[in-house]
Amino acid sequence: MSFYILPLAIGPWQIALIVVVVLLLFGGKKIPELMRGLGSGIKEFKDASKEEGDEPANDKK
């Protein structure tokens, strides 16, 4: 097993630590706004990728 993969393993304690740090940095009132913005960004990305996939490829010969 490679030693480069081990640091990428995230367990429950690391997730809890990340949540606590985010709460301390942004506060409880700001997090719903951040998540709402993240969700709308993901939705726009999915819509844009669907539109890109729906267009026929005219450059194929």
From TrEMBL:
GO terms for molecular function: protein transmembrane transporter activity. It comes from the Bacteria. It is found in: Cell membrane. The chain crosses the membrane at residues 6-26. Keywords: Cell membrane, Membrane, Protein transport, Translocation, Transmembrane, Transmembrane helix, Transport. GO terms for biological process: protein transport by the Tat complex. Belongs to the TatA/E family. Part of the twin-arginine translocation (Tat) system that transports large folded proteins containing a characteristic twin-arginine motif in their signal peptide across membranes. TatA could form the protein-conducting channel of the Tat system. This is Sec-independent protein translocase protein TatA. The gene is tatA.
